[in-house]
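Priority: medium. Attachment 1 of 2:
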């Protein structure tokens, strides 16, 4: 376990992660590359609901983007 002294002081304050930090944490979770300080900040100060909502929004955006890419590829192929 790490002590609080190893964390960035700006991230150990008692406030919740911002919407931008939440989005970056969810994106990092998509790829499995979250760093320890951000993960600890999320678990200590974050509530689950913003992460769930952001995860659903980003997942639906990813699915929508994939649908558009496939439709474009099929139209270019003449199908």
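Attachment 2 of 2:
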């Amino acid at each position: 376990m790490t002590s609080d002294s190893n964390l960035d002081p700006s991230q150990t304050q008692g406030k919740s992660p911002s919407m931008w930090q939440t989005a970056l944490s969810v994106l990092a979770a998509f790829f499995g590359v979250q760093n320890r300080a951000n993960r600890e900040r999320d678990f200590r100060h974050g509530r689950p609901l913003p992460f769930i909502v952001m995860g659903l929004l980003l997942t639906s955006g990813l699915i929508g983007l994939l649908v558009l890419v496939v439709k474009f590829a099929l139209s270019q192929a003449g199908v």
